Amino acid sequence: MSPPYVHQQVDERLAELYERHLVVDEASVATYYVPGGEHDRQEHDAGERDRFAISFVTDDGDAHVVGDWDVPFALQSLSKVFVYGLALEDHGREAVLEHVGVEPSGEAFNSIVFDERRRRPYNPMVNAGALVTTDLVRGRDADEKLERMLGMLRVYSGNDGLCMDPDVFERELRNADRNRAIAYLMRSLQMLAGDVEEIVALYLQQCSVKVTCRDLATMASTLANGGVNPVTGRRALPRESVRDVLSVMYTCGMYDAAGQWAYEVGVPAKSGVSGGILAVIPGKMGIGVFSPGLDEYGNSVRGVRVCEDVSDRLGLHVFATDSEDAMLGA
After folding, report:
1. Domains of the chain and any CATH numbers
2. From the CB of residue 303, how many other CB atoms can be counted at a distance below 10 Å?
3. Is 31 helix (H, G, I), strand (E, B) or coil?
């Protein structure tokens, strides 16, 4: 654990970061997330629009939080990271690669496009690939698969109370026609096996698990710490699978803005349309940001700006040679 004076310094820098990004020009916000798959500027509750939280969890388990860090929100596409890891653990790298690739698609996350040459979805961070990795999770039935997913997410977060929100799930299920279309088409092309409705429902259940910003940062820190939760000491993912997960996050994690993210921020990350972003700084820390205002790609406007700021000031980009700041006392 860091000395008290270092902890205080980080909290002070975090508060400054929060204040610096608290005000957002409404013109920069394209949409707001509404449970059920809708994105609308007017329908979203005004109070929810102002939600904003940042959390850091270091590789020695120190947690630093500011803002609405304890407000639960649905994982949505953030869940894809962890279910992909579970599929790797269940089947191994080569077997998973037979079913889903690791190439950026260059398309929106819900596009109905596939790698036709290899007859598989492009990567597990788009909906088509995520439906496949959901189907790959081992279990006697959907209930057992869901319990395994929840157990895995609880190890990552260190929060044994994580659960799926049935209200969010029901709203998502009522608006799941596009995911159904993707799944049925994949099954017709023999990219997916099993009951489509069951697979889609299970996928939407994993997306409906609620976390806080602090949970999210702990989950990111677990990946930064080689798959071991730095707070609890429990292993969430075998070390050999962590590299594969982080590699796909780096190239595919930010929807079709992944290339711009790799260029500007330069760390593995994943976003979700509920406004969450997790970023992983291997060997150092995990970052969680929550703010529902989304840009044209479906990424949190504040979240992207916070991560750009932190990466620039700390020299965190994978190709950076030095650091301008010492937020973490390193």
Report:
1. 4-74+211-314 (3.40.710.10), 78-207 (3.40.710.10)
2. 31
3. strand
Active-site residue (options: 55, 65, 66, 80): 80
Distance CA 176, CA 248 (A): 25
Active-site residue, from 18, 66, 77, 209: 77
Helix (H) / strand (E) containing 285? strand 285-290
Our answer to whether residue 77 is catalytic in this structure is yes
The whole model's pTM is what?
0.92
Given a contact cutoff of 8 angstroms between Cβ atoms, the answer to whether 22 and 52 are in contact is: yes
Catalytic residue among 57, 255, 289, 310: 255
A 10 A CB-CB count for 188 gives 10
Q: Is residue 109 a contact partner of residue 126, using CB atoms and an 8 Å limit? A: yes
Among residues 122, 156, 203, 250, the one annotated as catalytic is: 203
Joined together, the tokens standing for residue 328 give 């973490």
Q: What is the mean pLDDT of each run of 10 residues along the chain (330 residues)?
A: 69 94 88 62 60 96 96 96 98 97 80 85 95 97 97 98 96 94 94 94 98 98 98 97 97 89 95 96 97 92 96 90 52
- 23 catalytic, yes or no? no
